[in-house]
Write a structure and sequence with these properties.
Layout lengths: L1 H14 L4 H7 L1 H28 L2 E2 L7 E2 L3 H7 L2 H33 L5 H13 L2 H11 L7 H8 L14 H26 L3 H9 L4 H12 L1 H16 L3 H7 L10 H11 L3 H26 L7
Helix pairs in contact: 4-15, 5-6, 5-9, 5-12, 5-14, 6-9, 7-13, 9-12, 9-13, 12-15, 14-15
Length: 311
Amino acid sequence: MTLKNSNKKLKKIKKRKLPFKERFRKNAIVYIFLIPILIHFVIFQVFPFVFSFVLTFMDWKIIGNHEWVGLKHWRTFLNDKLAWKALWNTFMFSVYYIVPTMALGLILALIINSGVKAAGFFKGIFFLPVVTSFVIIAGLWGWLFRGTETGMVNWILSLIGIEPQLFLSNSSQALLVLAGLSIFKVAGSTMIYYFAGLQSIPSQLYEAARIDGASPLKIFWKVTFPLLKPIHFYVAIVTTIGSFQIFDSAYLLTGGGPDYATTTIVFYLYQQGFNNLNLSYAAVLSYALFFIILIVSLIQRKYLGKDTSFY
């Protein structure tokens, strides 16, 4: 009985909450580092997010009095043909960008992982566009796809008898060229993700497949590709978010033209917010983009995120 009573008392002491001063003294170092981070998060993350949502219901003016307008800007968005065209352009850019980026990253990772000589050198070459300034790469891309005979790509096409193309000045080609620029810029980072995934696949699985007489192509489709599903999911999420946030290439090379063919939703948001100083409508566009990315990410999570723990 005595032992049972003493055990009960010990349990009660353990369950009893320590005073705040003792808890603070015990975890002081944690609070010292955590409080500034939380303050920064609230000021630069939580407050802008909440305030921008409030802006969507107001007519916020740089100079003058602000007015509460309710759902006026949301109704404007629903009837704004240019906003919907910008969303469509962003969707088409995603179609041109996501799968080729994933495919090229996987191919580059397979090349490096295959044991080719000077693999480290090739890894650096493939990754070089990622660490190079986007302004420089965009300038080179604009020179390559210049819509005259002096452009490098047009010069190559002329050698095989194809007439010069307008590229960035053609409304049906400009978005494809911008997508190619983004693929070239980002493929090196997706290569690193896939290379890490390839390195984590147990070599015993490949040995067992070879013993069973599987061809290299069958090994890839039956062993490598399925076991990279966690990487596929992560890269798909990252590239999707990046594709819906595309801005810099349109800003640097086309200015949203020709005929609004490269006006993406983020570029249109920038024009409304900083050129037209219509901050409230820009906030509406930002939330529309937020909900679209959220929905697409949830769909990807449902169909690509299942059973991602294979090893």
